[in-house]
Amino acid sequence: MKNVTDSFVSLGRWPSAGSFGFNTDILATNPINLSIVLGVLIFFGKGVLNDLLDNRKQRILSTIRNSEELRRGAIEQLERARARLRKVEMEADEYRMNGYSEIEREKVNLINATSYSLEQLENYKNETLNFEQQRTINQVRQQVFQQALQGALGTLNSCLNSELHFRTISVNIGILGAMEEITD
Known about the structure:
With about 180 residues, the protein is an all-alpha fold. It has a domain at about 30-150. It has 3 helices and no strands. Helix 1 (about 1-15) crosses helix 2. The longest helix is centred in the middle third of the chain and has 134 residues, at about 25-160. The protein is rod-shaped and about 200 Å long. Its main location: membrane. Belongs to the ATPase B chain family.
């Protein structure tokens, strides 16, 4: 501090002869210049610096607020998406279960329809077999009857006279007529 005071004191010893000069003593003049510059900077720059810092602080706070709002919005969207996902998963499970039960119903219906069709085919087959068997039996009967009739006629023709022959033929024709009515 004594050096600063000495430099002010030395100002009074300078000759005032009208000449202008520089003080070349750096140790004496530099702290004074620095203190003046710093004082001016602090006095005038304090407001500007405070304004810059306040603006920066406001931008940071605004960015933080915006980030918080975006985060809240993202959390809400995430919750809505999770709720939609749960709903879709439940619907998918429901469709899957309904699909499985529908498949099982269709399978049972198909099995029942196939079983019914097989029963119908079996019945048609049995009816066809019975019909063909009856037709074949009737054909065999007719052939046997024809052969027996021809044999009987042959025997009758050789053993009977013509009057007895005509009566026997008439009776047999009546029997054949009655048999045809029964079979029809």
